[in-house]
């Protein structure tokens, strides 16, 4: 019988611990599929975060290192400088990347470090139980902003793609989501494009995935995807923020 | 190789290259900035990589990645920068990865002073990061010894799978001395089959840091401590200076031991039977030296450029806290020879 659907070989058989409706599982799968299609899972090294994806090293069926909270871009820099011909990917949450690790991501991007970052923006600290993230929307509730984020008290969210696209180091920056089947297809294309640009050695590549955390948002998986479409994406617009390959083509 | 006159900070950089290190990640800070300056021009000449990181935090986490990728890798800094590196040092220690970290200590705490100090003893020896761990700590007292220790540090790191800290100070970093690079590795090192290289056609590699089940985490710690026990048994190193007939022993390391050495010659001239135990490894602390000489020794004279951070280790080593007298200067002050001579005479009195 012909196999028409199977788990990518770039994922292990370890059972994912993610909640139902969580974007992490979808994005793991997309990354694994792309690496397998490129026949590059054997050349890939992932730098995984502190956050709900801390065990991604167990799920990815390729090399991986568990990094300190926010430091994956620095650790990935160390790996890439030793193995310039391998595909080095950081996989990070929004607390990890846009709060404690802001310096590391900005400078890896500015150096034009030839790595790919996959940034899971779910607007919340998932792993630690729903505290406010740097990306929590104004008005959105968190355990450390119980009546909703008030920019006057809690400051404003950070739009990372926009910020990084002001730098000269990045080669490709795109914001995608996985809240509709079409978005999932686009997200996969974006990840592939980023990895191909890395392979060509053109510079730093960055894919933000506007994601869901039903558990800490207090929503059902279906409602959470609705929230992504109706609230998150208007604040974090999808699209390509930087593409030096397109600029070259002009 | 003929001797060349080199500044300490440049000599340790060259020592790393001679030891096969091709990766340096660091951040400028006085009094060690000549290390990154030197390596920024020298590493590319041998096909190596120099990255000026955005912070010491980033630098040590780059070291974590490069070490995980199987490379010989160095970072260096001075006290406040080393304080910032503690997070990464803990992660590298927990992952059991080899790395070499040079600390050209200055006076503290906080921003402190840029003058030489030895007040990072506790941070290096007692573990400045969280959790149960030890790193090997080597304490050179000259530029030549710093060179030898940096080269040996890479072997120790690879052999045991642990960070090695070379704990020198601003004086050694800034001083010029003739040096040669003729250290030879005495250890048999196995290939780094665990390193992150991409899995190729084989099994995937993992460098792990989270061991969430308490029972597994305890077992993980215990494995580290089996390694530490081996290091304590095999790697204690010290110098014995005029100990054969000594009734009193200075205990001093690094720059302060240089001044003690001169003070001892004055005290010997004055008829005192005094020598020195100079720890070359601060962790493991050379307890064996004390086991060997303790029965002859009436008092230990601990001299440091700190407020006495090593005293507890000396007390533990000789098993008698009442046998120790301490003299220290801190905040960037290097003690003068006559201060040490005075201290010695006060402790030893008329006992010649
Ligand atoms: C130095 C440090 N500070 C704090 C923590 C606790 N901590 C673990 S995960 C996390 C937040 C993770 O949130 P995010 O990066 O958004 O990932 P998510 O779980 O949402 O995917 C925090 C604060 C830690 N492990 N280390
Ligand atoms: S807590 Fe949120 S981010 Fe974490 S696994 Fe559950 S849904 Fe995903
Ligand atoms: Mg998050």
Structural description of this entry:
The complex is a heterodimer of chains A (250) and B (352). Chain A is an alpha/beta fold. Chain A contains eleven helices and nine strands. Chain A has a single domain (24-249), classed as Thiamin diphosphate (ThDP)-binding fold, Pyr/PP domains (Rossmann fold), CATH 3.40.50.970. In chain A, the strands form two sheets. A seven-stranded mixed β-sheet of chain A has the order 2-1-3-4-8-7-9, sandwiched between helices. In chain A, β7, α8 and β8 form a beta-alpha-beta unit. In chain A, α1 (23-37) packs across α8 and α4 packs across α5. The longest helix of chain A has 19 residues, at 181-199. The model of chain A has no long low-confidence stretch (mean pLDDT 96). Chain B has 352 residues and is of the alpha/beta class. Chain B has helices at 8-18, 34-42, 56-68, 79-84, 86-95, 121-127, 143-160, 170-174, 214-234, 254-269, 287-293, 311-318, 337-348; strands at residues 4-7, 23-26, 49-52, 73-77, 99-105, 136-138, 163-169, 176-179, 206-207, 238-241, 248-251, 274-279, 281-283, 299-304, 324-328. The A-B interface holds A 41-45, 47, 50, 54-55, 57-58, 60-68, 71, 74-83, 86-87, 103-104, 106-107, 111 and B 23, 25, 49, 51, 53-55, 57-59, 61-71, 73, 87-88, 91, 95, 196-201, 204-210. β2 of chain A pairs parallel with β9 of chain B. The complex binds thiamine diphosphate, iron/sulfur cluster (SF4) and magnesium ion. Magnesium ion binds next to α4 and β5 of chain A.
């Amino acid at each position: 019988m012909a196999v028409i659907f199977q788990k990518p070989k770039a994922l292990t058989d370890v059972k994912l611990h993610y909640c139902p409706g969580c974007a992490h599982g979808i994005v793991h799968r997309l990354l694994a599929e792309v690496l397998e299609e490129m026949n590059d899972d054997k050349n890939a090294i992932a730098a995984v975060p502190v956050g709900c994806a801390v065990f991604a090293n167990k799920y990815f069926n390729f090399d991986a290192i568990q990094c300190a909270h926010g430091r994956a871009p620095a650790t990935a820099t160390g790996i890439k400088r030793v193995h310039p011909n391998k595909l080095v990917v950081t996989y990070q949450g929004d607390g990890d990347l846009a709060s404690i690790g802001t310096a590391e991501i900005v400078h890896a991007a500015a150096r034009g470090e030839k790595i790919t970052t996959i940034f899971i923006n779910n607007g919340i600290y998932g792993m630690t139980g729903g505290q406010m993230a740097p990306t929590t929307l104004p008005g959105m509730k968190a355990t450390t902003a119980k009546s909703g984020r008030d920019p006057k008290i809690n400051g404003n969210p950070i739009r990372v793609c926009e910020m990084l696209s002001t730098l000269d180091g990045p080669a490709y920056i795109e914001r995608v989501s996985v809240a509709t089947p079409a978005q999932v297809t686009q997200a996969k294309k974006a990840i592939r494009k980023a990895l191909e640009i890395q392979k060509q050695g053109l510079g730093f590549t960055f894919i933000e995935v506007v994601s869901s955390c039903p558990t800490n948002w207090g929503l059902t998986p279906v409602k959470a995807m609705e929230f992504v479409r109706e609230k998150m994406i208007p604040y974090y617009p999808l699209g390509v923020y930087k593409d030096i390959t397109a600029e070259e083509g002009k | 190789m003929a001797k060349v006159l080199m500044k300490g900070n440049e000599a340790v950089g060259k020592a790393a290259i001679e030891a096969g290190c091709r990766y340096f990640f660091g951040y400028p800070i006085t009094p060690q900035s000549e290390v990154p300056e030197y390596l920024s021009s020298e590493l590319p000449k041998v096909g190596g990589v120099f990255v000026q990181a955005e912070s010491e935090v980033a630098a040590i986490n780059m070291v974590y990645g490069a070490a995980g990728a199987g490379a010989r890798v160095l970072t260096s800094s001075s006290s406040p920068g080393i304080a910032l590196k503690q997070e990464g040092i803990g992660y590298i220690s927990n992952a059991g990865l080899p790395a070499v970290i040079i600390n050209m200590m200055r006076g503290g705490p906080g921003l402190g002073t840029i003058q030489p100090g030895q007040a990072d003893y506790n941070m290096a020896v007692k573990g400045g990061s969280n959790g149960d761990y030890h790193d090997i700590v080597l304490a050179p007292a000259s530029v030549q010894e710093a060179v030898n220790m940096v080269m040996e540090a890479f072997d120790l790191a690879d052999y045991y799978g642990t960070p090695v800290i070379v704990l020198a100070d601003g004086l050694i970093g800034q001083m010029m001395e003739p040096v040669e690079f003729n250290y030879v590795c005495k250890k048999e090192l196995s290939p780094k089959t665990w390193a992150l290289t991409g899995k190729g056609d084989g099994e995937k590699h993992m460098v792990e840091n989270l061991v969430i089940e308490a029972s597994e985490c305890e077992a993980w710690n215990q494995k580290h401590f089996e390694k530490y026990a081996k290091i304590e048994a095999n790697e204690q190193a010290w110098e014995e200076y005029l100990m054969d007939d000594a009734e009193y022993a200075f205990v001093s390391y690094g720059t302060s031991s240089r001044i003690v050495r001169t003070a001892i010659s004055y005290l010997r001239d004055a008829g005192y039977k005094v020598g020195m135990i100079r720890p070359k490894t601060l962790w493991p602390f050379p307890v064996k030296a004390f086991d060997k000489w303790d029965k002859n020794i009436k008092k230990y004279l601990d001299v440091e450029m700190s407020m006495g951070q090593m005293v507890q280790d000396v007390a533990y080593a000789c098993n008698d806290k009442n046998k120790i007298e301490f003299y220290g200067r801190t905040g960037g002050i290097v003690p003068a020879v006559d201060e040490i001579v005075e201290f010695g005479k006060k402790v030893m009195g008329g006992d010649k």
